[in-house]
Amino acid sequence: MIEVSRVSAREQETALAILFRDLDDASRQQHISDLLEQASIGQLPLDGLLLAKSDGRPVGCGLYLIERDQTAFVWPPAVDAENCLSVDPENIADAILQRICREVDAADAWIGQCILEGDKTVDQQRLIRNGFGYLTDLVFMQRQLTEQLPASSVESLTAIEYQSDTNRNQFIQLLQRTFQGTLDCPELRDRRSAADMLDGFDASRPKGRAHWKLYQSESQQWGIVLINERPEDKTWEIIYMGVVPEARGKKLGREMLLASLDGLSDRECDSIMLAVDCRNHYAIDTYDEIGFEEIGRRSIYCRTQ
How much is the mean pLDDT over the chain? Predict the structure, then answer.
């Protein structure tokens, strides 16, 4: 019989050792130490850390995290095949995912998503079998800020900084307009309002620096670029960029990016990264033109209520 339950404090290292089972001993211990340290200071709650047991033996681990905007991030289940004995490893993986799905549903999360890197056929099959569907591939891109930016090709734009107490509604209205005809995960755009999405971004803003700007010219608003600092990685991240339909094809997205990147380089963060839907070839071409390079791809599997 397989039992899946939340881990106790004394079981955390056991569960995490299964989660990072594919790493060498030194890397595994470092990952466990880093995760426990993040948990101790509240950066990564381990409320969603699960341990599967069979006849009292630890045989698998699951982990999920629900953000303040009710987005659930799910890690692929990890199974200790050597300790399974007569238990089918796939039954263990299914039990873990089914427990995660029940808890995510009970928490009223609007989506559960799992990101897979590389060829993960077994993980794909497990996710699909338990109600997750393939959404798309994300293209991860990065640019060094020490490299010179291309020259601007259109008239300058005016930037307005985000202030939650004064112009939140202005950003929400423009954000909603950028959703029209978007090629970035369009399947999910009707699942949340622009207000919910902005509130989610706002709730996850780091304690470090952030550059959230609305761009306009001659009272016409063209788009939004939201950039957060990731001090732990010594980089910046574009968490959202959107252009209204009537501004597309006019190089205004390019100009918004150039304006946002100008002046970001410093001693603490000398690069910037982003993730974009592989189907959004217009955005990818723009990023490529500005000097971003692809550094990897990952597949997204989602389960929505």
Answer: 90
Domain ranges in the chain are 2-131, 141-299
For the whole model, what pTM was predicted?
Answer: 0.88
Residue among 46, 111, 39, 51 nearest 80 (CA): 51
Task: Name the token pair of 270.
Answer: 């000398």
The H or E element containing residue 139 is: strand 133-144
157-213 per-position pLDDT tens digit: 899 999 888 999 999 999 999 999 998 998 988 888 898 888 888 877 766 678 999
Q: Which CATH topology does 141-299 take?
A: Aminopeptidase (3.40.630)
DSSP code string of 205-274:
--SS-EEEEEEEETTEEEEEEEEEEETTTTEEEEEEEEE-GGGTTTTHHHHHHHHHHTT---SS--EEEE
In this predicted structure, the answer to whether residue 250 has a pLDDT above a threshold of 80 is yes
Say how far apart CA 192 and CA 101 lie, in whole Å. 20
What is the assigned CATH class of domain 2-131?
A: alpha beta
Q: Do domains 2-131 and 141-299 have the same CATH topology?
A: yes
The 10 Å Cβ neighbour count of residue 278 is 14
**Distance (Å, whole) CA 250 – CA 248:** 5
